[in-house]
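ok so for the tutorial part 2 we go from a plain amino acid sequence to predicted structure tokens. step 1 is just haveing the sequence, like this:
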Amino acid sequence: MSGIAGIYYLDGRPVDDEVDRMVETIEHRGPDGISTWQNNSVGLGHCMLETTPEDQFESLPLVDRTGNFAITADARIDNRRELIKKLEIRVPRERPITDAEIILAAYKKWGQSCPRELLGAFAFSVWDATEERLFCARDHFGVKPLVYHKSENSFLFGSCTKSVLTYEKENIRLNEKRISDYISNTFKNKKYTFYDGVKKIEPGSYISVMNKKLVKKRYYSLRIKENKMGEEKAFEKMRSLLLESVKARLRAKRKPFILLSGGLDSSSICAAANQVSSEVNTLSTIYGDYDQCDEREYIESVLNYGNYNHSVHEYKKNKHVSIIPEIIKYQKEPFYAPNISGTWERYKSIKNSTKVILDGHAGNEVVSPGYGRLVELARNGEWIKLYKNLWSGLNPLGVTRSIELFSGYIAKHGDKAVEDRGWKYSMGRKIARALVRLRSKVKSKSSSKIKWEDVIKSSFASRVNAEERRHEYRRGSPARALSESERHHKTLSGNLFSHTFDVNDRVSSAHGLERRYPFLHKPLVEFCLSLPANMKRRNGWGRFVLRKAMDGLLPEDVLWRRNQANFLPLLRDGLRSKRDTLSDLFDGDTFEWQSYIDRQTAETLVNRLSDENNKSLGSQELFLLWRLAVLGYWLEEESCAKVQET
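step 2 — the prediction. this is what the tokens look like for a chain of 646 residues:
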């Protein structure tokens, strides 16, 4: 996971040492070397992390023989052979062609259309002196991060906000709308960051800066295409695409580690690696006395089914809150998932053993659990099939939960069935609606939960239209889609999907590691999206196509596993162990906490942590308190930075 940064003075003044300072702030991303290049009003920088065999021959920023083109890149190109042949690149005898050389050759041949031809994960910038254009592009799904800031006379870009803020901090203020969205757990768009004026280049997009004008364009968007392939061929295709993707992502200078949790996604990656590589390193985290998190049974089952070099990382109890300030220094923005603390410690344990990790993140979204199939069954009047799917899929939760969800699906989506099927279906929908209303009344009477609306300062919420933003976000959520293909497409194109890659990148890069996602292989994503709904969910089994594709490569107990680990107790105990620390944080005067948050309500959340039965704090409240803690530490960091500047 290399780092890139650069600057282009639109008023023509020469670049001095600005790029050097920008790159120094992200040197943790490239422990294998830092270099910069300047030419009049343009400067490019690079931090090297050698992860592929070709990286040792890479010299970035790279300038071509004519001196007209220069590139800096954080990239792994998977279709190397195809591109080398198509571009007619002459391969030197003494060394292989590097990925940056391939990208630059692609730009010189295809211009701004070049990203369409690339497979893999990439963020790069090319200076084209023939057009006096700076061209920046990001990969199809946004695995590699790239942010920018444009003022009247300058354009800056980098792998993360830290590099941009180093140079333009005095002109950039906090983004209050983003802060509001964070509190309400809203992902409004793919472009914004926690700083006004610092924006992300969206996945599948590029930016061209020329003649003081900035042009943004999408070069790739997911399209829903119907796949009429037979079932057996579909299972074979799914398997071959996953094997192809895993093989490409195992291309590394040092043997990668695969994170094995015992779930279907990570286990499938391990099984695929076992088919294409003679040596597979795996790493699992164990959680001591936390039985709810214990997946050792499934991990052992996978290990016994193949040939692996296995390592174990032991979870350090109650590290959630105490580790936030350390992570904030690298994230430079608030983050969501509490499991980052465990991930942080896990990466620390292996950073001296490898530079590449593979994990199953995005597998659930790419293959799809097929919940839209349940909507289709409700709408089509196939209510017996609907209930069977719910009962089979949710059997561990019992009949009450199945009936509750069954009623909800019919009440929300059963209108078409009523129109087409007559009075019996009309009666069924009335009963379902009555059950939903009854459940809603019972819930509202028994609920005294604190919500984000209670915590956020009313004047602040009004100023940024917090409730309207949240409502608009929920209105466009995947759960509102009327079919499986629409829901699947919304999930893969959604703001939350791309946001997680930025956070994951900053965590791994802090430890000199590159994180790779085998399920984010463009042909694999497009194939999964094209499948009919009954290939994604059948008889209560979500991700049915993946389960069938891995038949014979994984043990049955993992392949057809129903239960999932519950990590909520880790968060609950982690917050409770630092109750006094949180109280001090919310009482602090070193930052303008009172501008955003009602202190008294936040303190009520903290006080309720002391309830040993813990019936007063539900999962949503715990996650809310976690976000408030992260936000508080970030604001404190920002406040300290301002004091140092003055």
